[in-house]
Amino acid sequence: MILPIVAYGDPVLKKKAKNIDKDYPNLDALIDNMWDTMYNAYGVGLAAPQVGLPVRIFMIDPAPFAEDDDLSDSEKEELKDLRKVFINPKITEESGEEWAFSEGCLSIPDVREDVFRQPDITIEYYDENWEKHVEQYSGLAARVIQHEYDHIEGVLFTDKLSSLKKRLIKSKLGNISKGKINVDYKMRFPNAKKAR
Asked: Which of 169, 185, 174 is CA-nearest to residue 9?
């Protein structure tokens, strides 16, 4: 089932999400619905707060980035096969020299800005079968994970922009929160007169 994606301005996007346990109600259905929602919106990642739930779950499938000709063959292979669910994740280490990449977000449609992030991470998490993993990622794979991880920490990519950039996009963000934007996927707008 495709769920509405919560738009910029909704308080759930600014909340630090809570861990869940194995008995979280309808977890399998939630994960299936989040995959459907992400693919319907042509996203490469989706976090539970983006569907209105302040819990520590996100998923990624950065396969579309594997088409980028600037990437090495090994990077393309990694991105192609990186469809994963992260439950109760914790980034334990970030390292390397920060680099910029133009990021966007399903909750903030039509806004893309350069965000600086460190290229290498170590993350521990549970998968959908409650098996624990500790893994390392780098480059675009790490960036997609960091972006989704920020969502469960109550951080949006726009929070990482300079004050000048924030001022330049302020009216656009206001319009998004009011639903004054055309999107081709289902959204929930916090300040809209009538939700679509």
From this structure: 174
**In this predicted model, what pLDDT tens digit does every residue of 21-69 receive, in sequence order?**
999 999 999 999 999 999 999 999 999 999 999 999 999 999 888 887 7
User: Which domains, and CATH codes, for the chain?
Assistant: 5-188 (3.90.45.10)
Within its chain, how far is the Cα of 118 from the centroid? 17
Q: Measured between alpha carbons, how far apart are the two ends of the chain, in Å?
A: 17
Which two three-digit tokens encode residue 105?
A: 């977000």
Nearest-angstrom CA–CA distance, 196 and 179: 8
Pairing of strands 5-6, 187-188: parallel
Residues noted as catalytic: 148
What mean pLDDT comes out for the span 120-136? 97
